């Protein structure tokens, strides 16, 4: 997964830049952090992780009550949508990474279970270790 970041220069007066900074740093970023925490602590999270995806709309559902929270209210709707999209993207990519790591671990565990010690090989093949090595 990749995400394209667009950078632009904001040409605005100081008051506008201060307002946007406050909106982003003091309201939107804490909203994203709160949504991340709520998704992580959701009772169904482990099921979603095993399934490989978070249900569509769950982050939006968790965001709705936060819109009235004094810490996060008075944001334009695009900021709420941005927070929802960011949290969904973070968990989608995290879950994909966890699945890849789990498959790798399962493969290594399966490989280790196949390996046998010298004594087990001798016992199973009912021949000497030297004859096994020469074969």
Entry summary:
This protein is mostly helical and 135 residues long.
Describe this structure in words.
There is one protein chain. The protein has helices at 14-41, 45-51, 58-63, 77-114, 118-125, 129-134. Helix 1 (14-41) packs across helix 4. By secondary structure, it is mostly helical. The chain contains 6 helices and no strands. It is elongated. The chain has a domain at 14-99. 69% of the residues lie in helices and 0% in strands.
Average pLDDT: 89
Q: The biggest beta sheet, please?
A: none
| SS-derived structural category | mainly alpha
Query: Hey, roughly how much beta strand do the residues contain?
Result: under 5%
Helix proportion range: 55-70%
Question: Could you list the spans in which at least 5 consecutive residues all have pLDDT below 50?
Answer: none
Give the overall silhouette: elongated
Number of continuous helical runs:
6
Radius of gyration: 26 Å
Order of helices and strands: HHHHHH
The beta-strand count equals 0
**N-to-C span:** 47 Å
